[in-house]
Design goal:
The complex is a heterodimer of chains A (438) and B (311).
Chain A lengths: L2 H14 L2 H26 L5 E7 L14 E6 L4 H9 L5 E5 L13 E3 L5 H22 L4 H7 L17 H38 L3 H5 L4 H37 L1 H10 L4 H14 L8 H29 L4 H27 L4 H8 L4 H9 L9 H29 L9 H9 L3
Parallel strand pairs in A: 1-2, 1-3
Antiparallel strand pairs in A: 3-4
Helix pairs in contact in A: 1-8, 2-8, 2-9, 6-8, 6-10, 6-11, 6-12, 6-14, 8-9, 8-10, 8-11, 11-12, 11-14, 11-15, 12-13, 12-14, 13-14, 14-15, 15-16
Chain B lengths: L1 E11 L4 E11 L3 E5 L6 H8 L7 E6 L2 E2 L2 H4 L3 E4 L11 H11 L4 H14 L15 H13 L5 E5 L7 H16 L3 E6 L2 H7 L2 E6 L2 E7 H7 L4 E6 L11 E7 L2 E6 L5 H10 L4 E7 L3 H9 L15
Parallel strand pairs in B: 3-8, 3-9, 6-7, 7-8
Antiparallel strand pairs in B: 1-2, 1-4, 4-5, 9-10, 11-13, 11-14, 12-13
Chain lengths: 438, 311
């Protein structure tokens, strides 16, 4: 086994065998999902139940209002507000509405609902909706319009968008492209941060433990750095695969466990990154080709930019790690120039996902420090039209070139930094290290 | 036959000439002491020998061939002064890992580690973690991992710091063993009494330059001050001679310094002529410690890192 492979193997195994790895990899997403499921559960079945007495003297609502689990309307007659109030106080009803006989449907009728205690937001919405629906129905009847007539009047036209090349450009696709681009860019952003800092801490650990010199008397510093980057990259890959698997399994299982929850979750899922990515993966198998999104291409590009971005940034993080000593605060200040481009990248990405052909987006997707994040947002909108093939190839070539540059720079700085103890160097000094002979 | 030859090694850093034209040879199978005050350039020199640094100028010849870090690293075992271990790793795994990095196969490594652990009574350590070890214990482990792959050249930078006398002796015996089996050992230290005890040959560096080179005996001879200690059976009264000067006088013992042009026999003759009974007579050689201090003193070695250099 080559020495780089040996180092990578150790880096991988020591991290994967740790208990915290299992915890973060398996329990964290479960916890996340559990929490999320709970929130949805509570918001769907709000425990409130209202039984509202309606004294409908004007005869507007009777017979055209629906009851459900939360809100029940009981129609009463020959009651006055005073007697109703008394019944509410006696817990016979939770509230009452008195509609005087002179109420006109076509006016803007004032309907007072009096309850014992304040009504929760969701129930309030429900009551309002039900009453307004009933009012609308009554008004239509007053105009002699039937419900079916109204429905056919409200039918939407079948509006199709397409590009000049004759490609179908449905809203469904644009929305999906948006989601895929956003998620892919965001995932890469997170990867760069989590695993980049993991590399940095690994290098710092070697310095703090004073083992660096022992190791580099056996292997070249570059081999040590590369082994570390590869090993931690493998940890990241495994973690991601486990997360994706858990996501897929959970989204598939959820409807079986609690069907209403699944429905609610479906509508709410746009808020949740992990959910959404799972959704995308799930859909990728079944999506029909008419929604011209090229999934193999996107997944291939994702892997390329995932690895390219990770290699590029982790070597920079490694060089920060080699330069600092015990003090984590030193790391903070040296890290800033490395983290800034990542944050810029995500800012450009949020613009690029809306307007993938803008100059800023094109620049961001070519410049190697931003391209891993930005290009994914553009690729989702289609390669060939939104992203010309030459741009994709140039971006990839530049990323590889960028990685070679940062790796060269990092290796030089690493070589010097890992044997340095004492004062924290500045970036200017580190730049000098890169140019001198070792 | 020399295992290692250094020819005009130079390494300049931005603020100092860490190693400034140093050459010496080390014979195969010898125990060699590299001495020098703090910041003399010892560590930089060792890093060039181990291939961690490339010399700015000069060359390193290992075993008759120009030193090539990639090929020759397996011939060297280096225990740096800044040494450590992975804290969270199990001791057995750690030793195997370090041995594998040196190019040993897994099985070979496990076998050798087991036999070393047995010899140094460390068997029970295998599945403990490094963070459970005391400083002396981890030092022992480091020594084992340094010599495990049976390198021809073993470089130990301050190997006894932090070891109790029992363990220090244990390691010392192992060092003699290794030298007997044909390994060459370079010792870097500023603990002179150990050097005097162990080393055959020493080089003293200061301010990046070599200032002494020779066998321990020879160096001591070079710096002898013709002092002798004479012990008598009685207590002689007034001793006065043009042959020597009395430096120190105790009850029945004097320490004399022989004047130029005379030898030890002249001293003896003086006392014999006076019929003073001599019980003991021996030369006092300077200790390495004294030589060291004499050579280094006054060179402003301590403030060296802030000196100006003229390239």
């Amino acid at each position: 086994m080559s020495k780089t492979a040996l180092i990578a193997r150790r880096e991988f195994l020591t991290r994967v065998q740790k208990r915290t790895f299992l915890l973060t990899t398996i329990l964290l997403p479960l916890l996340f999902f559990g929490l999320y499921a709970l929130i949805i559960y509570f918001s769907v079945s709000s425990g409130e139940k209202y039984n509202i007495a309606v004294a409908d003297d004007a005869n507007i609502f009777k017979g055209n209002i629906e009851n459900d689990d939360n809100v029940h309307f009981t129609f009463v007659s020959n009651e006055t507000p005073q007697t109703l109030k008394q019944q509410v106080e006696n817990n016979k009803y939770d509230g009452y509405a008195f509609i005087p006989s002179n109420t006109k449907v076509l006016d803007k009728p004032k309907i007072d609902i009096v309850t014992r205690k304040s009504v929760g937001l969701i129930s309030r919405d429900k009551i309002e909706d039900k009453l307004n629906a009933a009012l609308e129905q009554q008004r239509l009847l007053a105009f002699n319009i039937s419900k079916s007539q109204l429905d056919s009047a409200k039918k939407e036209g079948n509006i199709q968008f397409s590009t000049i090349e004759g490609k179908n450009d449905s809203g469904k696709e644009a929305g999906l492209s948006y989601a895929i681009g956003y998620i892919a860019g965001f995932l890469i952003y997170i990867v760069l941060f989590i695993y980049g800092t993991m590399v940095m801490r690994g290098v710092m650990e070697e310095k703090v433990n004073r083992i660096a010199e022992v190791i580099i008397s056996s292997v070249k510093p570059f081999q040590l750095m590369l082994g570390k980057i590869l090993g931690i990259g493998a940890v990241g890959l495994v973690q991601f695969i486990i997360w994706i698997a858990i996501g897929v399994i959970l989204t598939l299982l959820m409807p079986l466990i609690y069907p209403p929850l699944a429905e609610a979750m479906h509508s709410a899922s746009s808020q949740n990154q992990a959910m959404q990515s799972a959704e995308v993966i799930k859909n990728s198998g079944v999506i029909d080709n008419s929604i011209g999104i090229n999934f193999p291409l996107i997944i291939g590009c994702f892997l390329f930019y995932f690895l390219g971005g990770y290699f590029l940034y982790s070597s920079l993080f490694a060089c920060v790690g080699s330069a600092v000593n015990e003090d984590p605060q030193d790391a903070q200040s040296l890290m800033l120039p490395v983290t800034m481009p990542i944050i810029f990248g995500i800012v450009i990405m949020t613009k690029a996902v809306n307007d993938p052909a803008s100059n800023l987006a094109v620049f961001g997707s070519l410049f190697p420090l931003f391209s891993p994040i930005v290009m994914m947002a553009r690729i989702a909108h289609g390669v060939g039209d939104v992203v010309p093939v030459w741009q994709l190839l140039t971006s990839m070539a530049l990323l590889i070139l960028g990685f070679l540059c940062t790796a060269w720079f990092a290796a030089k700085v690493y070589h010097t930094g890992i044997l340095m103890y004492g004062k924290k160097p500045t970036w200017k000094e580190m730049w000098k290290w890169a140019w001198r002979r070792s | 036959m020399n295992i290692l030859e250094l020819h005009g090694l130079k390494k300049y850093f931005a603020t100092q000439k860490a190693v400034d034209d140093i050459s010496f040879n080390i014979a195969k199978g010898s125990i060699f002491g590299l001495l020098g005050p703090n910041g003399a350039g010892k560590t930089t020199l060792l890093r060039m020998i181990t291939g961690i640094f490339f010399p700015d100028e000069g060359e390193v010849i290992l075993d008759g061939k120009k030193f090539d870090p990639l090929r020759d690293i397996v011939k060297i075992g280096y225990m740096p002064e800044e040494r450590g271990l992975y804290k969270k790793m199990k001791i057995g795994d750690q030793a195997v890992y370090l041995a594998q990095l040196k190019g040993l196969s897994r099985n070979e490594a496990v076998q050798k580690i087991k036999s070393w652990f047995e010899r140094l009574e460390m068997q029970s350590w295998w599945s403990k973690k490094v963070e459970d070890l005391s400083k002396g214990m981890s030092q022992k482990l480091q020594f084992v991992t340094t010599v495990l792959h049976e390198p021809k050249l073993i470089i130990l930078d301050e190997p006894f710091s932090g070891l109790d006398p029992v363990n220090a002796n244990l390691i010392k015996d192992e060092i003699y063993n290794l030298a007997q089996k044909g390994s060459t050992i370079i010792f870097s230290t500023h603990r002179m009494e150990q050097v005097e005890e162990i080393c055959d040959h020493i080089v003293l560096v200061n301010l990046g330059r070599k200032i002494l080179d020779g066998s321990v005996q020879q160096v001591k001879n070079d710096f002898k001050e013709h002092k002798f200690s004479v012990q008598f059976s009685g207590t002689p009264s007034d001793i006065d001679s043009f042959v020597f000067k009395v430096i120190d006088k105790q009850n029945n013992k004097v320490i004399v310094k022989i004047n130029e042009g005379f030898g030890s026999n002249d001293v003896l003759k003086y006392f014999i002529d006076r019929q003073i009974n001599i019980e003991a007579f021996n030369e006092i050689l300077p200790s390495l410690n004294e030589i060291f201090i004499k050579q280094v003193e006054g060179t402003k070695a301590a403030t060296r890192s802030f000196q100006k250099i003229e390239a």
